[in-house]
Amino acid sequence: MKFSIRALNIFFFIALLLLVSAFVYSYFNIQGLRSANHWVNHTNKVFLNLESIHSDIKNAESGVQGYALTKDATHLTQQESSRKDIKNQLRIIDSLTSDNPQQQLYIDTLKVYLNDCFFLFNSSINLTNSNADQTEIITAMQKAQTSTEQINRIVDQMKQHEERLLISRTDTAETLNKNAPVMIVLSGILGFMVLVLSYYFILLDIKQRKEIVKELKIKNTLLEYAQQLTQMGTFEYFIDQQKTSWSNEMYNIFEVNKNITPAPDFIDSLVIDEDPHKVQKRKNQIFAPNQSYSHDFKIRTSNGTEKFLISNGYVTKESTGLVMHGAIIDITPLKKAELSALQQQDLMRIAKEKAESASQFKTRFLSNMSHEIRTPINAILGFTNILKKQELTPEQKTLLKNISISGELLLKLIGNILDISKIEEGKVTIEKKSFHLKEIIRSVLSPFQHTASEKNLDFRLVIDEKIPDYLIGDPQRISQVLVNIIGNALKFTSHGGITVQIQFVKNEGADYFIEFSVTDTGIGISPDKQEDIFESFTQANDSISVNYGGSGLGLSIVKEIVHLMDGTINVQSPVFTNERDKGYGARFFFVLPFHLGEDIDTDATKISIKPFPKKVTVLVADDNEMNRTLAAYTLQALDCTYEIVENGLQAINKASSFNYDIILMDMQMPVCDGLQATEQLRHNKLKTPIIGLTANVFQEDINSCLEAGMNAHLGKPYTEEDLYTVIDTWVFKNAVKSEFTPVYSNFDFIEKLSKNSTAIYREMLEMFQKQNSQLLQEIVNALDKRDTTAIDFSLHQYKSCVRILSIEKLASLIAKIEQKIKNNDPVESLSEDVKKLIEIGYIVSKEIDSKLSIL
Fold first, then answer.
1. Phi and psi, residue 714, nearest 5°
2. Which of 44, 391, 544, 729 fits a disulfide with 539 by CB distance 3.0 to 4.6 angstroms?
3. What's the CA dihedral at 559, 560, 561, 564 to 10 degrees?
4. pLDDT for the residue 129
């Protein structure tokens, strides 16, 4: 059985405690007996004095009676002597019973009766001296006798009380006298037994210590071996004595002879690439009790070897003074590996920057190409729509239709290229809104039914009746997927037909799974190509693009969009076999999850062009002549008054000299572009609504419009209905609500909270707008003052607004900045994130303004 030193100390302490207890118990028992004897004597003294009082009061009474009968003055001498004796006895009793409240109460009462009694004695004496009537004297004497009886009664009560105390104290003494021998013997025996056990365990401990010493020698050997393997040495530095103790490996690390005792400042003398004052300052900071430290440094040994070391340790206060216990590890190989890794990291960073630069260049290139191609298409489609309203011959109508189809195909191709780019950059967002699925499907398929009819193909639509009417999802993206798949089916099918089937699959909890399938009787897809067709710019074989055309982008986009909607897509081919057992036909099918949606008023979203309540004056700034002409025709059709300029500088001059109702500003123009012009106009305090016109559809371009101070963005090509909606929105505040799609904000929570009350909705938005502007300004001021505490406080308040509007980008930025503040990062590291947060915050402000304008 093993016992620690502490356990053995406890055993000795218990034995000592038992023996001391026996002695203390004996001592207190003797004291108890002495105390009992003392209280017996005390009681006897009290009894004696009480008896004396009783006797003296009798003597005094006899003296007064003798004088009353004989008028002999010698009797009065006896009465006066008794009075003095009683006072003296009362003083003694008062002293003896000073710790007894009951007896003190009796004494106080006794004093009162004694005074009364002697007063009556004196009255009897005075009556006798004045030869009063004998009856009066007898009456006074009777009163005195009554008082004497009261005194005797109190004396008896005091004697009885003292007797009870004496009995109680005597019982206590007898109990102590009985228990004392037993307790003393038991304590002695137990103490002796514990001492014997302790001695036995000490012998065992000595044996175990010898074994431990042997184990320690083995472990010390292993430790030295481990230190050699890990190149880690340990040391103790006795700070007050200025002495150092090293392990063997310390000598190996510093390449010093083991016979040399190192000086306390020996290590400091080897440190290089570090200020000696800084080294000394660091040492002074850690030379305090309970301080720990960890730092790395570089040395050059006496042999000229440069090494990287890391030192860890702590300081304790011991009997000899302050002692530093530490370890030093040679991390030279690790440091060299780290430097190599840093070089690799730099190379990777440069490669990443090049890749990002290439990605930005690609995005900008696509943006510019989109603008350059969409600009003439905008004019072509715009003029086509204008011509369609003229009186035309059937042949002209056919030609215009072909022009329109070609332009739309070209737009679709550009859209596909841009979609691929946005998907690669992760910038495609999926909407979550309620829509009527069956109506969307029918409207999407309507043009294809006409195309199929022209090719003499059957076109069937089958919709499962179990599918709910209203679901929550992204109707535009679903339409995009179906258009791509059905377009391919029409392209590759020359006979037979196409079947579009929408089937209810299952529902799990709140999720409703719907399968969309498109089956055709076309050429089909060979099994070895079915995986490849979902890759960008890939078709089933090289002859496809020659015979059927196409870019090979459609299915790649379809697959990515389906995945973004948490769905799956597959292809089955062949679907049918002919009489020669040759397979043909293909079936594309994808399954998407939905939630149940709410009934929406679709008629409310339809645009009906009506005359404006008043004449609208419009300023158009566009450098492209065709676009200017198209804008003129469109504005004439809307019965608007307009002026057209060719660049931003002209727009600034015109807008500064005339009050227009609305400005249509192209983004890319010579001399001064639309963004610069807008910023200048806003700087000039112009409040006129400015709408950005651009063929670019990248989110960055839309954000740039809003950041420059534009109210909204209108993409090219735009229709007469689009332009009508913009003017109605920003001039007359009568926008169709579904036309506004915020980039960052989500108003669903506020919409539910307002319970369809426009007044509450508006009030809440105005409150958030005020809070958004105020907190952004506070954050800007705090950043200018480099006050991280103020930044953190304002961010904490700003989070509430961000959460209610579900602005995920801002929420992630706030979390990132708060973490940097928590880590005590320098203000410079926060600057870029805070500026980005402010930039997005101002866009959110524009979005709230836009939402307010259509309420």
1. -125, 115
2. 544
3. 120
4. 80
**Amino acid identity for residue 353 in this structure:** E
The pLDDT confidence band at residue 515, using thresholds 50, 70 and 90, is: very high
Span between the terminal Cα atoms of the chain, in Å: 86
State the Cα–Cα distance between residues 719 and 418, nearest whole angstrom.
Answer: 21
Angle at which helix 475-491 crosses helix 437-454, to 10 degrees, equals 20
Quick check: 330 pLDDT over 80?
A: yes
Strand-strand pairing, 586-596 and 511-520: antiparallel
Residue 619 in tokens = 């300023």
Cβ-contact 779, 791 below 8 angstroms: yes
d(CA 828, CA 240): 43
* CA dihedral (468, 474, 476, 481) positive or negative: negative
**If you average pLDDT over residues 468-475, what whole number do you get?**
89
Does residue 259 surpass a pLDDT of 90?
Answer: no
Q: Cis (ω within 30 of 0) for the bond into 574? A: yes
Which helix (H) or strand (E) element contains residue 285?
Answer: helix 276-286
Residue 400 CA to residue 383 CA, distance in Å, equals 10
- Residue 166 corresponds to which amino acid? L
Query: What count of other Cβ atoms lies within 10 Å of the Cβ of residue 516?
Result: 22
| Sign of the Cα pseudo-torsion (101, 103, 107, 108, in order) | positive
Q: What is the DSSP string of 741-773?
A: --SS---HHHHHHHTT-HHHHHHHHHHHHHHHH
Instruction: State the virtual CA torsion across 542, 547, 553, 559 in degrees, nearest 10.
Output: -90
Spacing of C-alpha 753 from chain mean position: 25
Question: Tokens 């258009």 sit at which residue?
Answer: 483
Q: What's the angle, vertex CA 103, arms to CA 102 and CA 109, rounded to 5? A: 95
Mean pLDDT of the chain: 78
**Residue 301, SS3?**
coil
CA atoms of 637 and 386, how far apart (whole Å): 9
* CA dist., res. 136 & res. 147, Å (int): 17
The secondary element (H helix, E strand) that includes residue 413 is helix 394-424
Tokens matching residue 143: 């009163």
DSSP state of 97: T
CA distance 640 to 379: 19
Contacts of 451 by beta carbon, 8 Å cutoff, 6+ apart: 490
**Over 50: is that where the pLDDT of 437 sits?**
yes
Q: Which amino acid is at 645?
A: V
Which residue matches tokens 């009997």?
A: 319
The Cβ-side half-sphere exposure at 831, using a 13 Å CA radius, reads 7
Residue 690 pLDDT: 93
| Long-range contacts formed by 5-10: CB under 8 A, 24+ apart | 5/205, 7/201, 8/198, 8/201, 8/202, 8/205
CA–CA dist 726, 732 (Å, integer): 10
Q: How many C-beta atoms lie closer than 10 Å to residue 257's C-beta?
A: 6
* Amino acid at site 774: Q
Q: In the predicted model, what is the mean pLDDT of residues 530-554?
A: 51
CB neighbours of 738 closer than 8 A, spacing ≥ 6?
604, 605
Q: Which residues pair with 691 in a beta bridge?
A: 664, 712
Q: Tell me which amino acid residue 706 is.
A: L
Establish whether the linkage from the previous residue to 376 is cis, with ω within 30° of 0: no
Of the two residues 801 and 250, the one the predictor is more confident about is 250
pLDDT digits (tens, 9 = 90+) for 287-296: 777 778 787 8
- Number of residues that make up the chain: 855
Q: Which residues pair with 516 in a beta bridge?
A: 502, 590
Identity of residue 272 = I
DSSP-assigned letters across all residues of 635-698: HHHTT-EEEEESSHHHHHHHHHHS--SEEEEESS-SSS-HHHHHHHHHHTT--S-EEEEES---
Hey, what are 758's tokens? 């426009």
Region of residue 131 (phi > 0: left; psi between -120 and 50: alpha; otherwise: beta): left
Question: Which pair of tokens denotes residue 203?
Answer: 């012998």
Q: In this predicted structure, what is the pLDDT of residue 363?
A: 60
Separation of alpha carbons 854 and 758, rounded Å: 11
